[in-house]
Design goal:
There is one protein chain. By secondary structure, the protein is of the alpha/beta class. Helix content is 34%, strand content 35%. It has three helices and six strands; from the N terminus they run H-E-E-H-E-E-E-E-H. Strands 1, 2, 3, 4, 5 and 6 form a six-stranded mixed β-sheet that branches. A hairpin with a 2-residue loop joins strand 4 and strand 5. The longest helix is centred in the last third of the chain and has 26 residues. It is flat, with a radius of gyration of 22 Å. The relative contact order is 0.18.
């Protein structure tokens, strides 16, 4: 009898720890009315061509993978994500031993400033925020093509951060 009572008490206590959890996406409170988001092509304030499409596609794919918000067109969406690519920077991470001027590895940082506005009214739901995606790449024969190959990785890291900020609130 004591074993049964102890087992029942243990079961109730262990299940009581899960009382605050729920299944499925939990949106931030200030975005509770948003179920679908339109993602028009981001503005490009850099000199890198075609980067706006790459970053926008990465953000859309990350939203689809996350599943918290549905991607919709401008006319059907609850909110519109407006973004602009502000800067792409490359800085040395590792140099050759014995020659500090010869770089063997670079870090690449991609910066985007975004805001989320309600479709129609233009009310700002998420104030303008800057998010950064970073990656690193090694220097080969052509540094420009090496950087170009690293850009999709930085865009993916940026998209992951942006979507988690909107879907988790931080």
């Amino acid at each position: 009898m004591v074993k049964k009572l102890a087992g029942t008490a243990f079961l109730l206590l262990s299940l009581g720890g899960c009382a605050g959890y729920s299944v499925g996406p939990i949106q931030p409170y200030y975005l509770r009315s948003v179920h679908s988001i339109a993602v028009p092509t981001f503005d490009n304030k850099t000199l890198v061509p075609r980067i706006a499409v790459l970053v926008t596609d990465s953000v859309i794919k990350q939203f689809q993978q996350d599943g918290t918000y549905r991607i919709a067109g401008d006319e059907q969406a609850d909110a519109i994500l407006k973004g602009e690519i502000t800067r792409i920077t490359r800085y040395p991470a590792r140099s050759l031993r014995g020659n500090v001027l010869a770089t063997t590895e670079f870090n690449l940082a991609l910066r985007v400033r975004y805001s989320l506005v309600v479709r129609g009214s233009g009310t700002v739901l998420a104030r303008p925020v800057e998010v950064i995606g970073t990656t690193s790449f090694f220097v080969g024969a052509d540094i420009a093509s090496d950087e170009e190959q690293a850009l999709p990785l930085a865009a993916e890291a940026l998209a992951t951060r942006l979507v988690s900020q909107l879907s988790e609130g931080w």
